[in-house]
Amino acid sequence: MKNYLNVINGKLVDSPEYFDSLSPATAEAIGRVPVSTPAQVDAAVAAARAAQPAWSALSDAERKSALQRVADVLKENAEYLATWITREQGKPLGGVGPDQVPGSRFEMWGCEVWTRVPASLDLSPEVVFEDDTRRDVMYRQPYGVVAAVAPWNWPLLIAIWQIVPALRAGNTVVIKPSELTSIGTLEMVRLMAEALPPGVLNTVTGDGKVGGLLTAHTDVDKILFTGSTATGARITAAAAESVTPTTMELGGNDAAIVLPDADPKAIAMGLFWGAFLNMGQTCACIKRLYVPQALHDVVVSELKAIAEALPMGDGMNDGVAVGPIQNKKQYDKVVSLVESAQAEGGKIECGGTTSDSRGYFYPITLVTGLNDGARLVDEEQFGPVLPIIKYRELDDAISSANRLDVGLGASVWSPNLDRAAEVATKVRAGTVWVNQHGAIHPMVPFGGIKGSGWGVEFGVEGLKAMTQPHVISIKK
């Protein structure tokens, strides 16, 4: 079985210890991942530190050009990398049906787009104040060395979200991928690094101990993390010791509110993929669906019809629309939440059964009859299960949507756009979509509030987050 290597200072680096990466479709090993030693973490940070002044000294045009070359590399190797996403993460390789349900090829297309867009953006000096006596100009300077910790659900795309804006702003990067999906990221960075100066982009791999060494490193100037709230809290505590700034995109439990004038047939497909994109393993998926009592049964019927029509299986096979849960721990959590829902009076409308397959397959599951306070409603399932909750008064649904200490995304569904937008202003989340859910865009800032984190990614605001303001104040 092949060993995959880290990239440190432009070179492939072996390690004394490896672990297996498993396919979620078969639970079989598909490659071996290095465990970075403390010395290798130090070397990766040192390489980034040494490379940063020259990288930052390049003109904007030169850094833009380098990142456009990286985008070309991603495009040229998209099929190879998409295959690794499917093998390691589980999402289907291609789309199915007229809407081409997003899979690994979509993820790689996103990697290219989220490289080209930040590479094209400018952060021009801004005159923040001027009168007859003074002129104050704010410039943007890179932090220096950025440590990035990426998750397993969109392993390459979220890595790109972290890497590219940081590089565009003149930082250098050391990234640690999830130990559950490391190979695809290692291969992507290996290819990207060939288009960049040595040391500008480096990797370290391993479990949380390696991540802890990286994020607590005294030569790291900024930390980017996407993952659970609990892990984010630990990283933040460590960062506070050295007063290292952070951007945190943490867990969510997104609520969707269907308004009484909605057409269930018209919104069913949007609701369905808003909840079950990537088998529900997306931070900004619908995790709680609030439906008026009069529309409840027909909404459930429409969603059930979609769920039961979609083929599930190994994402490497043609025609597969939904794949496995990525790992055994997450699979067990989903099973536990469904069992709790049944014990608390929930009704399984479809799905809800375990599989004898070697992989971590669990059917798309709709649960009704629950209320706020049930585990499946209050805890983020991060899997293919959706509680559908009746409401009588709209104010009650809004209160329910806001009651938890998370606030990544939410959505409101109605043909009356003015009314939907009015309701959206009352929902506390970083992004509230209307008649769509999880519809991110490379130019639109994205981030959470409350326990879902702080800071934003994407667009000019996301690029600014990779810089420090530097004001030059001139007396006339």
Write a concise keyword list for the protein shown above:
single chain; 476 residues; Aldehyde Dehydrogenase, Chain A, domain 2; six-stranded mixed sheet; 22 strands; globular; Ald_DH_CS_GLU; Betaine-aldehyde dehydrogenase; oxidoreductase activity, acting on the aldehyde or oxo group of donors, NAD or NADP as acceptor; Ald_DH_CS_CYS; oxidoreductase
At a glance:
This protein has helices at residues 38-57, 60-76, 78-89, 104-120, 155-168, 182-193, 208-215, 229-242, 264-276, 296-309, 328-343, 375-378, 394-402, 417-424, 459-464; strands spanning 6-8, 11-13, 18-22, 29-34, 126-130, 134-142, 145-149, 172-176, 201-203, 222-226, 246-249, 254-258, 286-292, 347-350, 365-368, 385-391, 406-407, 409-413, 431-434, 449-450, 453-454, 467-475. It has 476 residues and is of the alpha/beta class.
Radius of gyration: 23 Å
Through-space gap between termini:
69 Å
Q: How many domains in all? A: 2
Strand order of the largest sheet: 14-15-16-13-12-18-19
Dominant shape: globular
Unreliable spans are none
pLDDT averaged residue by residue: 96
Instruction: Find the CATH superfamily of the largest domain.
Output: Aldehyde Dehydrogenase, Chain A, domain 1
Reported by name, the CATH topology of the largest domain is Aldehyde Dehydrogenase, Chain A, domain 1
Identify the CATH architecture of the largest domain: 3-Layer(aba) Sandwich
Question: Helical stretch count?
Answer: 15
Number of strands: 22
CATH level-1 class of the largest domain:
Alpha Beta
Main sheet specs: 7 strands, mixed
What proportion strand? 15-25%
Structural class: alpha/beta
Helix content: 25-40%
Active site: 249
GO molecular function: oxidoreductase activity, acting on the aldehyde or oxo group of donors, NAD or NADP as acceptor
Protein name: Betaine-aldehyde dehydrogenase
Keywords: Oxidoreductase
